[in-house]
Amino acid sequence: MTSGFTAADVPDQSGRTFLVTGANTGLGLEAAKVLAERGGRVLLGCRSEDKAMRAMAEIEAVVPGADLEFVSLDQADLASVRRAADQVLAEDRLDVLVNNAGIMMPPKEMTADGFESQFGVNHLGTFALTSLLLPKLAEQGADAVPRVVVTSSIAHRGAKIYFDDIDADNSYRTQDRYGQSKLANLMFMYELDRRLRAAGSSTIAVGCHPGIADTELARHLPAIVRFAVPLFRPLFNSAAEGAWPTLMAATDPATESGAYLGPTRRNETAGPAGVARATAVAKDDALAAGLWELSIEMTGIDPDI
């Protein structure tokens, strides 16, 4: 596997199609920009069409003639996820699904389907969209190495899944629920990898995290933390640098199914991409199987693998 991966290491992507969720800003926008630069067709899965159009204009400013398409996607609404999947299923092909969309530490909110928002958007929306698009990815066959990328976070460290209070009816601490959602992302990736390999699928599953990147995702952090951000900004990855693990997960030919990638410097908070560390809880097969079944029950969508 390549180590010290940056955008400069992304190979030519001509003829390949990518769906990048949350592509209108931050890591998603930066990843979409590089994939378009390398010749890929990029579908931008975004809640706001206006923001998606602005993002597409920004990409086209540096990649004239970029092959881009807007996909209306709100992961807080499973009906929207299904409509987005239907649009993508109508595409000629899908090579890579980049599950990047997410929210971080908002006040307690519920999704359209009644789920605690961070778990609902970050995990259940990702689980549902991936499940619906797995057949499309599988159409490409082994030579194309279709792949699912799932974005986790260093916040998965020390987190737990609140199986007995999944919708936060009894308690809600915003950072705990964010950690839960990011742990769920990583557990989902590992379980998806296990199931794909057991089924002999040509599709691979890869996890990644951006370290600490300077993006809009931090808008719900406490005021004192937001105030300190400018002081520490020189230590962060820029959004473009934070996208390196995503790009490695999506395009590195040497990356194998089940890999987990992140920045390689300062305890995985910054620098070029390489192998990242996952906790023992994230790799717990029994917990992941339980999460898989719970996710099917909550979404009503079965990946059937």
Would you write up a description of this structure?
The protein has an eight-stranded mixed beta sheet with strand order 3-2-1-4-5-6-7-8, sandwiched between helices. Helix 5 links the parallel strand 5 and strand 6 (204-208). Residues 223-229 have low confidence and may be disordered. The protein starts with 16 loop residues before the first strand and ends in a 6-residue tail after the last helix. It has 305 residues and is an alpha/beta fold. The protein is globular and about 50 Å long. Helix 1 packs across helix 2 (49-62), helix 4 (117-138) runs parallel beside helix 5 and helix 4 (117-138) crosses helix 9 (285-299). The chain has helices spanning 26-37, 49-62, 78-89, 117-138, 174-198, 223-232, 239-242, 244-251, 285-299, and strands spanning 17-21, 41-46, 68-72, 96-99, 147-151, 204-208, 260-265, 270-275. The chain is built from nine helices and eight strands.
